[in-house]
Amino acid sequence: SAKRSGRNDFRFYSKDLTVRAQERLTLESDLRHALERGELALHYQPKVLLGSGAMVGCEALLRWAHPRLGMVPPDQFIPVAEDSGLINELGAWVLRESCLTAVVWNAAAALPRKVAVNLSVRQIQVPGLVAQVQGILAETHCQPQWLEFEITESLLLDEDGLVVNALQALRDMGVTIAIDDFGTGYSALSYLARFPIDTLKIDRSFIHSATTDHFRAELVRAILSIARCLNQQVVAEGVETRVQADFLAAEGCQLAQGYLFSKAVPREQLLAMSDACLALGDMPSEPIAT
Ligand code: C2E
Ligand code: MG
Ligand code: MG
Ligand code: MG
């Protein structure tokens, strides 16, 4: 009967939830050992000048090679790390590694190259963050202007003023701040002026359809003009085609990141390709929205 199958559905559903909760617990306990077992690695995705393809920075992205599950994407394990508090230990490791990369990368560079590090809400809520950053910069001999933090818009819903104080202190040190996935959160425009922000990273969902959807194209133009008014830089995320890159360049966007140029690669590979200009070859084309 319908009632009976309904009950079975419910049982199936609740079992499914139990399985998922179990998997999450397993992931959490595996993550606790991942660092010491050397399963975690940082990869770096280049940020390039749209005009020339020259690399001016990169973003550090965590990779976890799980012995049984294979590569676990950060969208799956970062939330686990955040809920369990492990993010602070992982975050400190990510920061130290990123600073070391910045030091090597800048050793022979004519112009400063920034390494951007993603920062979770949980990390910025810990009172010692600013001192920790200061300590790691000093210990690794990393200059603050080689470091950028990427935070999401949700961080700007800052009722107690803790976040704005931490961001201001970091900025006073010379570290820059970027808003990640811009356009997907709740930022009231007033936040953008109130918070000490250097860079807006336009979420890849806008970039993806900007060349085929007139409305999206207008939104990208609007974001670019807001950034100009506020004297902020813009990075287009998730640029995959030449047509997208040309559209962005024509609209005055200077910086981009995406598979068109490079995916995230290990440190040695980043260093090896730093002086090459990326993506000057032919790429598949697509229609441009008019
Ligand atoms: P995010 O900071 O917005 O990073 C950009 C994501 O888009 C990365 O996914 C990157 O590999 C991917 N991506 C870059 N270019 C393209 C493209 O052209 N097309 C497509 N489809 N995707 C592209 P990834 O590495 O899986 O990271 C996912 C998210 O996990 C990051 O989003 C970030 O929020 C978080 N994350 C990664 N590493 C860390 C970390 O060290 N700390 C913290 N707190 N979060 C991290
Ligand atoms: Mg990011
Ligand atoms: Mg992003
Ligand atoms: Mg993201």
Automatic annotation (TrEMBL):
<feature type="domain" description="EAL">
    <location>
        <begin position="24"/>
        <end position="278"/>
    </location>
</feature>
<protein>
    <submittedName>
        <fullName>Diguanylate cyclase (GGDEF)-like protein/PAS domain S-box-containing protein</fullName>
    </submittedName>
</protein>
